[in-house]
Amino acid sequence: MSPRTPAVDYVESVSPGSGALPPRAWYASSDAKSLSLNGRWRLRVSATADAEDDAFAEEGYDAQDWAEVTVPGHWVLQGDGGFGSPIYTNHLYPFPVDPPRVPTENPTGDHRRVFDLPEGWPDLSEGGFVLRFDGVESCARLWLNGTDLGEFKGSRLPHEFAVGHLLKQRGNVLAVRVHQWSAGSYLEDQDQWWLPGIFRDVTLLHRPAGSVLDFFVHASYDHVTGEGALRVDSDVDGRVVVPALGIDAATGETVTTPVRPWTAETPTLYDGELVTEGERVPLRIGFRTVELADGLIKVNGRPILFKGVNRHEWHPETGRALDLETMRADVLLMKRHNVNAVRTSHYPPHPAFLDLCDEYGLWVIDECDLETHGFVEQDWRDNPVDDERWTPALLDRAARMVERDKNHPSVVIWSLGNEAGTGRGLTAMAEWIHGRDASRLVHYEGDVNCRDTDVYSRMYASHEEVERIGRGLDGGTLRRRELPFILCEYAHAMGNGPGGLADYQRLFEAHDRLQGAFVWEWIDHGIRHPELGYAYGGDFGEELHDGNFVCDGLLFPDRTPSPGLVEFKKVIEPVRIEGDGSGGTVRITNGYDFCDLSHLRFEFFHQVDGSPSGAEALTVGPLAPGESAEVKLPSGPVGEGGEGGEVQWTVRALLADDTSWAPRDHPVAWGQETVVPRTPATVAASQRPVPGGRLLTLGPGVFDARTGALRSVGGVDVRELRLDVWRATTDNDDGASWQDDTRYGLMWRTHGLHRMRHRLDGVEPADDALTVRTRVAPAGRELGLRTVYRWTSDGTRLKLTVSVGPEGDWTMPLPRIGVRFGLAGESAGHARWFGGGPGEAYPDTGAASMLGRWDAGIEELQTPYVRPQENGARADVRWAELGGLRIEGDPAFWFSARRWTTEQLDAARHPTDLTPGDTVWVNLDHGQHGIGSQSCGPGPLPQYFLNAEPVEFSFVFSETD
Questions:
Q1: pTM of the entire structure?
Q2: What is the pLDDT of residues 98-151, one digit of tens each?
Q3: How far apart are CA 150 and CA 176, in angstroms?
């Protein structure tokens, strides 16, 4: 065969493609035959779009020497780097911006699969056959048995092709050419890895004569009468059967009957069938009505409050190629952490995910596969959404989303896309969607005046601004002021954080107009890496990248919940449990939108100094949504706190029975209150320092006589105890480069807080104390902290009182303030403490921290953020024990311990950079600066600032038994 130059003009065409069938409703199965073409495919990768001709599509072509890859999959995540590498950018296009042109260097994957029709399949003359691709990035052209079927763009959208006239019983050759870059890439700039490939299912469908084409299930609910109205519009006449409701009706006919409605809290689905002459399609019908009424989003007549997350599709090994069990794992984790809503950022998910949302109950904002964020760099000039040449492509994307997903009761809002500026194309999309489906609302955050949309939506608005919006003081157009408000993105969950969740939630619950928010985002997009653990932007040598900004989720890449998700679960729990301060009663409030509390059981226990009593059942009636009740608590050790012991009560709300998403006794909510406060440890200063050569002894403490440095407590060696104000800056400390607010992580470094010097000003033994005077300050600055360590002892215990006074003009808060010291690693491998736990907590991330007695290995005290940073502090600690030492604090303190120094943690870029040493470094912190979410949002609220001001705090050291 003579060489041929392939035609590749379609790659840079703004057209959505050619040859594909009109979009239609997606369904997982029917009684018509289907054949999955997932599996092992042959692959050849070329450097450019036109490097190879289309001879590989011919039936006789020999591809035996080609590599093999798995479909669904991304070729850059297979072959150990032999097929290229991933690229991560937040919003910058990784190629020159010249729409619709793309680079000559355009990695192109030729895929080839040979298949036979299974035994028992219908004869090729019986009906038709359709080839369906559920997702290909970013542009594909395909052939079957040497015949060109067409090409398409729209990576996260389905495309079907009629192939019945080309099929054979055996030896069918399916060839697909996939280009990484195309005109479509300009519409898909969605803050994620750029990953080419056939990453969703490929399926061959038999279409019998008279089979279903498109159909639309209209299932509304009248909350006044309790009746549902069902009508199924179908391109092919047939009947609709719902046995549980006694329905057997013609398509197009409306049937009204009493039903149980569908909500995210009560996801009732009725099994039915759409029956045509040639096919029976299973239906899962949820009756619900979504409306904009009284300025609020209402479902079934009631306002709803979104407690949501933004979910990219991600797996650390397969990228955006997810199997059903991974999707189910996401849904179950959401339900178990009280999440009730998902925004499918920023593209329609695999359709099976929406089936799971229907089944388990999640509100869904279904977002179109559209983002052009990179055009912000040129002030949105040449933005495709404001260029009418691109409008057909935009409308095609909108239609493919709506038609595919329109039969899912979980989908309550359509979203036009994300960060695509403004323009005529978006208006056209909104008009088309409103015209096609009036039963749902339309969202787009970039529509600041809500001209085309039904919801006022923002990203990362501050607490102050959100409150003004809730009070109706935000201004804007009259139409916007009359609409409900959501934060489609907030609480940027990058690294340690997000902080301030509880403060946001109080606002959402205080103002009706504020109908909730969606945390950015669900999961860290780390790629599993043999040397780095998980890779992020820049780890593959990208020319442009945005570092670990791709790791900003509530889940670590392996789907382990982060402390942020544990905090979020507590903050959004659907039952409020609050004490009255006396320890006698508790106020229980039902925070659900639809269901009562009959599915929960409540238990109660007291604890004295962290040791709990046995749990007792607490009787709480089945409160209706929004109702509260005062419940008397069982009598306990209140007032008899075990000779001055601290007393708390704890009430927990647990599932009374197994559910589809969690077993019986799964904790849904909890509350705790201290009813007898602690009595801090006292140490009578009865001992005097005793000199002995180069050492000085005070009770169990041994000190360097010249420097006053503590050397040991009893038989426990102690290294380098001194004031510490530095923490390995978090992603939220460092902030985002585009923000106007002060980025304190950078300011701290500029002022040298990471390299503080400790000057010794005096060592003063006295009759009842050893006083060491120092000044702690950075080189090159006048700022300093006058620090005094005063040691006293009663003979068996050693008390340290630290007094700190700022000097100079401190215009910034401190990262932390406390003391740090080292213990021998071989004896300090495990810690016990009475305080907050079991996980980390900081001033604005402490809602989920429960007071109790906890224990953990030093390794368990670390939080494995993909980029190492400050982590692992346990809050409200009364006492801690490790390495043979017991430490009691006055007041309560933050406690952390690790096998590397803060400086080593600060220098690390991946956890694999951290090598455990022979010393366990312990921090006892009087204060920590708040966390906030300034990696892409506001910083900590002022009440969580650790301002530089005079402080005094104490610790009591003793040997453990």
A1: 0.97
A2: 999 999 999 999 999 999 999 999 999 999 999 999 999 999 999 999 999 999
A3: 10
For the stretch 772-809, pLDDT in tens is 999 999 999 999 999 999 999 999 999 999 999 999 99
Q: How far apart are CA 571 and CA 558, in angstroms?
A: 24
d(CA 926, CA 335): 36
- Cα(386)–Cα(629) distance, integer angstroms: 55
Residue 6 pLDDT > 90: no
Q: Which two tokens stand for residue 631?
A: 């419940």
Contact 499, 526 (CB under 8 A): no
868-882 burial, b at 16+ Cβ within 10 Å, e below that, comes to: bbbbbbbbbbbbbbb
Q: Is the pLDDT of residue 825 over 70?
A: yes
Active site (catalytic) residues: 419, 489
> Whose CA is closest to 831, among 781, 783, 872?
872
Strand runs labelled E in 353-424? 363-367, 411-415
Query: What order do you get walking across the sheet with 215-222 strand by strand?
Result: 215-222, 227-234, 255-258
Q: Residue 581's pLDDT is what?
A: 78
Considering only CA atoms, which of 491, 488, 489, 487 is closest in space to residue 514? 487
Work out the mean pLDDT of the chain and round it to a whole number: 96
Q: Is the dihedral of CA 578, 582, 583, 588 positive or negative?
A: negative
Question: How far apart, in Å, are the Cα atoms of 469 and each of 455, 462, 480, 485, 623?
Answer: 13, 11, 11, 8, 31
Tokens matching residue 311: 């979910």
Residue 739: the pLDDT is 87
Q: What is the pLDDT of residues 573-598, one digit of tens each?
A: 999 999 987 778 999 999 999 999 99
Beta strands 719-724 and 105-115: pairing type? unpaired
What are φ and ψ of residue 572, in 5° steps? -100, 10
Beta sheet of 290-293, edge-to-edge order: 290-293, 296-299, 302-303
pLDDT of 638 over the 80 cut: no
Cis peptide bond prior to 346, omega within 30° of 0 = yes
